[in-house]
Design brief:
Elements lengths: L1 H15 L13 E3 L16 E8 L3 E11 L7 E2 L4 E5 L2 E2 L10 E2 L1 E10 L8 E6 L15 E4 H8 L5 E6 L13 E2 L12 E11 L2 E13 L3 H17 L5
Parallel strand pairs: 5-14
Antiparallel strand pairs: 1-2, 2-3, 3-8, 4-5, 6-7, 8-11, 9-10, 9-13, 10-12, 13-14
């Protein structure tokens, strides 16, 4: 269990430092559909998900997953089939004004569940998020934002066996220190800034690593014609299936 966890970290760090290979930091067991994830809403895509699972001591099975998607009817987020997603710059209230809250055109998602005699709060579960693509080296979690799911669960729902959600980098609570949340050390999120944003979930117990997953979102400018086409498709989808984010 522990050797697998640290072995995966070492392999990825080695891979991203090889000459001639573009910087990348992704860790997962499987990439594809993950039907059990709703991301806490309805109609949120779960067909291109980075996922991992681990059996602990022959009793607990822990699954972790992450993804990125277009927010409401904004242009679709694409991916390379290997946990690197591509989204567009900009912000709005949804492509067709579906939300009262302004957000970037894309969201990132998380999922952690457990089956067996234990509950999630029996483990240390941490989520790391990036608000500044120039602020932290690939694979360096120290400067990223941090959500301590274990602390939040112990304070609110200690018997929980599932946590999942869909968040947006422009949501203000991610930029402010609060109980269970350590904001990033770098500048505030700029939805018009291009670059790679990194996200990760780590699971440990009694100081030993259990599992880890990591993905990236590469943000690039979207040509006007592509944005209009993507928004039109998104609006058509909205009229048939409501999406909550």
């Amino acid at each position: 269990m522990t050797n697998r966890f640290y072995g995966r970290i070492a392999a990825v760090i080695f891979a991203i430092t090889l000459p001639g290979i573009a910087s990348a930091w992704t860790i997962y067991d499987d990439f594809g559909a993950f039907e059990d994830a709703t991301w806490g809403g309805t109609g949120i895509p779960n067909d291109a998900v980075a996922a991992s699972s681990q059996i602990v001591n022959g009793e607990d099975t822990i699954r972790i997953a992450m993804s990125a998607h277009g927010r409401y009817s904004n242009p679709l987020v694409t991916n390379n089939g290997a946990a690197i997603y591509t989204a567009g710059t900009g912000s709005n209230f949804g492509g067709a004004g579906e939300s009262a809250d302004e957000g970037a055109l894309w969201n990132w998602t998380y999922f952690v569940d457990i089956s067996g005699p234990s509950v999630l709060a029996d483990y240390q579960i941490d989520l790391y998020y990036d608000l500044d693509p120039a602020g932290s080296a690939f694979g360096d979690l120290s400067g990223l934002g941090h959500i301590d799911f274990t602390a939040l669960l112990l304070a609110g729902d200690p018997a929980a066996t599932l946590v999942e959600g869909s968040q947006n980098n422009l949501f203000g609570f991610l930029a402010v220190d609060s109980f269970g949340i350590d904001a990033p050390n770098f500048v505030a999120f700029n939805p018009n800034e291009v670059g790679n944003y990194q996200y990760a979930i780590t699971v440990s117990r009694a100081g030993f690593g259990v599992d880890v997953i990591a993905m990236e979102v590469n943000v690039i400018p979207i040509p006007a014609a592509v944005w209009l086409f993507g928004s039109a498709l998104g609006f058509l989808g909205w009229t048939h299936r409501h999406r909550t984010v």
